[in-house]
């Protein structure tokens, strides 16, 4: 495979995931980004500024783990460094997905002092069977203050990501969700589970 050209099956998986995220309303305007690990410390990621519902396979570009584009003339997403960080930490992670949903944005804005959302008692937590052995335990979803400076934001995230067990994902305040999995579909299922949890948390808080 020529340098900078993403294998077609990988690009097609990311295009399909982008379409699904768009149908669910998780990537408004040109927000969000999607990536998959390639061999040799490289990844496939959506290029900057493209709508995720209208992705084409040529919008998926190759980037190294320092966030540098290997596809001539194509710029990666501004948030590529946050994807690099996850791949560098956990070799078994094969895909990272990021979206800007209403539940993730609204709930984190409504909790300006909170550093985590504690999720407990939800059956769907089983989506993280590597982290969660019973739906009864409390799982912390870290909330990190948003920052336009990506190296600074990555440094803020590092202690959260490195402590004990990996979190189930994280949310950036007023911004969106990051979640990951062994491959694109596994990451997509977890994104769906996390979006369900945040939307349910909002509904539950309205009722008490
Ligand atoms: Zn974003």
UniProtKB/TrEMBL annotation:
Catalytic activity, reaction form: 5-(methylsulfanyl)-D-ribulose 1-phosphate = 5-methylsulfanyl-2,3-dioxopentyl phosphate + H2O
Keyword terms, alphabetized: Amino-acid biosynthesis, Lyase, Metal-binding, Methionine biosynthesis, Zinc
Gene Ontology cellular-component terms listed: cytosol
InterPro entries tied to this protein: Aldolase_class_II_sugar_metab (IPR050197), Aldolase_II/adducin_N (IPR001303), Aldolase_II/adducin_N_sf (IPR036409), MethylthioRu-1-P_deHdtase_MtnB (IPR017714)
Record Pfam families: Aldolase_II
Domain Class II aldolase/adducin N-terminal: 12-202
Cofactor: Zn(2+)
Record pathway: Amino-acid biosynthesis; L-methionine biosynthesis via salvage pathway; L-methionine from S-methyl-5-thio-alpha-D-ribose 1-phosphate: step 2/6
Record note on cofactor: Binds 1 zinc ion per subunit.
Keyword Lipid biosynthesis carried by entry: no
SUPFAM superfamilies with a match to the protein in the record: AraD/HMP-PK domain-like
Enzyme Commission number, as recorded: 4.2.1.109
The organism's place on the tree of life at top rank: Bacteria
GO BP term (any one): L-methionine salvage from methylthioadenosine
Gene Ontology MF terms: aldehyde-lyase activity; methylthioribulose 1-phosphate dehydratase activity; zinc ion binding
Positions that bind Zn(2+): 98, 100
Free-text function comment from the UniProt entry: Catalyzes the dehydration of methylthioribulose-1-phosphate (MTRu-1-P) into 2,3-diketo-5-methylthiopentyl-1-phosphate (DK-MTP-1-P).
Family designation: Belongs to the aldolase class II family. MtnB subfamily.
Matching NCBIfam families: PRK09220.1, salvage_mtnB
Record's protein name: Methylthioribulose-1-phosphate dehydratase
The species this protein was found in: Acidisoma silvae
Organismal lineage: Bacteria, Pseudomonadati, Pseudomonadota, Alphaproteobacteria, Acetobacterales
């Amino acid at each position: 495979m020529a340098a900078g050209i993403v294998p077609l099956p990988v690009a097609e998986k990311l295009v399909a995931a982008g379409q699904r995220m768009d149908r669910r309303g998780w990537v408004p305007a040109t927000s969000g980004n999607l990536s998959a690990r390639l061999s040799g410390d490289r990844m496939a990621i959506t290029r900057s500024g493209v709508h995720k519902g209208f992705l084409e396979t040529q919008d998926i570009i190759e980037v190294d783990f320092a966030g540098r584009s290997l596809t001539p003339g194509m710029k990666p997403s501004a948030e590529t460094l946050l994807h690099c960080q996850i791949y560098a930490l956990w070799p078994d992670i094969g895909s990272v997905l990021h979206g800007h949903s209403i539940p993730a944005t609204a709930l984190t804005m409504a909790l300006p002092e909170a550093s985590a959302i504690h999720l407990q008692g939800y059956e769907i937590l089983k989506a993280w069977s590597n982290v969660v052995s019973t739906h009864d335990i409390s799982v912390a979803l870290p909330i990190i203050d948003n920052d336009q400076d990506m190296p600074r934001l990555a440094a803020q995230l590092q202690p959260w990501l490195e402590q004990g067990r990996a979190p189930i994902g994280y949310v950036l305040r007023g911004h969106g969700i990051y979640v990951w999995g062994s491959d694109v579909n596994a990451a997509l299922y977890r994104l769906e589970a996390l979006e369900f949890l945040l939307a349910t948390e909002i509904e539950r808080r309205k009722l008490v």
